[in-house]
Amino acid sequence: LPVEGERNVLITSALPYVNNVPHLGNIIGCVLSADTFARYCRLRSWNTLFVCGTDEYGTATETRALEEGLSPQELCDRYHAVHADVYAWFRISFDHFGRTTTPQQTRIAQDIFQRLLARGFLLQDTLEQLRCESCGRYLADRFVEGTCPFCGYAEARGDQCDKCGKLINAVELKNPQCKLCRGTPVVTPTQHLFLDLPKLEGRLEAWLEHSWATGDWTANARHITRTWLRDGLKPRCITRDLTWGTPVPLDGFRDKVFYVWFDAPIGYLSITANYTDQWERWWKNPQQ
């Protein structure tokens, strides 16, 4: 835990996604640099906590589980063990290597959601999504393939075209097909929850100006953030019509889960919480 009067350092690295075997590029790209810094901090006798873990929710896990004939939980259990063994073989010096499919993740993610809801930072709106009547389910981005509306590539996914690189809304695909049964899905309206980012824009901009002046942001990070603000923040959908994910604790949305990009960053908190029940002393303690 943080110690009064000492230098306390919390280190994380990007949570590796769990649906494959890690390779050298994964290790060099995220965990190795964090491990090097953690070793340096310990040599300096700084009080250091280095946490990481596997990112386990989302449609990519569901897709891979279907391909391998496993449940998503079985797939995650298999690949979490593979990841842990690989990093142990490389002697990556995690203090704790966890995962995002834990009761702590559910508790903390739902608590953050409830706080956003209570403070009026969530919106409800209708989205048009592709639904496969044969499978009886709305199709998340990766469960749809079709022809790219921009370049004509015949095997574009419902979120991006791998040929021209453009982002796609699944309902824009020409000749869409369900990846599960190869049936033709239909466009159907469905209710979702959105993070009201425009309401936060003024407060965020003031915080960023202070942070840019006092912190060590890279030029690239500054540029990307300024571009988002220049174009104006838009409401961001935080729910999905899936079964594999953290459940949404709100009447009318209990058949949905949180979108993995809302849920996964909370994994840093929940993984720390699985290491110590006093995790807030690391994450809500700027004085130390």
Descriptors for this entry?
Rossmann fold; 4-stranded antiparallel sheet; alpha+beta; 288 residues; single chain; 39% helix; globular; 3-stranded parallel sheet; 9 helices
What would you say about this model in short?
With 288 residues, the chain is of the alpha+beta class. The chain is globular.
Write structural notes for this entry.
The structure is a single chain. The protein is an alpha+beta fold and 288 residues long. Among the domains are: 8-109 and 260-284, HUPs (Rossmann fold, 3-Layer(aba) Sandwich); 140-186, no CATH class. 39% of the residues lie in helices and 20% in strands. It is built from nine helices and twelve strands. The protein has helices at 24-43, 59-68, 72-89, 103-118, 197-214, 219-231, 260-263, 267-275, 280-283, and strands at residues 8-12, 47-54, 96-99, 122-132, 137-138, 144-147, 156-157, 174-178, 186-195, 236-237, 239-240, 257-258. A four-stranded antiparallel sheet has the order 5-4-9-10, with no helix packed on it. Strands 1-2-3 form a three-stranded parallel sheet, sandwiched between helices. A three-stranded antiparallel sheet has the order 7-6-8, with no helix packed on it. Helix 1 (24-43) links the parallel strand 1 and strand 2. Helix 4 packs across helix 8 (267-275). It is globular, with a radius of gyration of 21 Å. The termini are close together. The mean pLDDT is 92.
